[in-house]
Task: structure prediction
Amino acid sequence: MKQKIKIALVTAVIITSFGSCKQEKQELGPKASQVDGIVNNWILTKVDQIDVNVELAFQESDTLLDVSEAILTSIPMEVNIYGDGTYTFTDGDGRNMFDSLNTGTWGFDNDEYPSMIVFNKGTNQESNYPLIRPVRPQDPYLAIKYNKFCGDNRIVSYHLWFTRK
Result:
């Protein structure tokens, strides 16, 4: 009889200890707004070049080469993206990758799930730059892709990395 009581007591202790180890559910909180995340002053700090015509590469990133030292030789360019939907570019190294964009309006292709930023210089000519990664308020980088074309053929791509100022 004493043996049965001991077994029952040990079983009760084990069952109670497993029940008390239950983990609390954690919540992620609200989704970060990428529109809020991109509004800032950004400085071009890194440039990666991708040769898109290499046929042996499995992915585009297999041919990635950091060319920051060749392009960013003195003062890097800046882009100021404002919450009212406008932007301004300042002169500096890397500025030639943004055509004749000086000031205008900006927007995402989709504010909830953006895949590219669209700059409009006010002449109904839009310049689209695909986003390499999301840009949330807590992210220190804005990474976009610049494609260089010869006619209709893309000859080289650049990953442009901007850092919050």
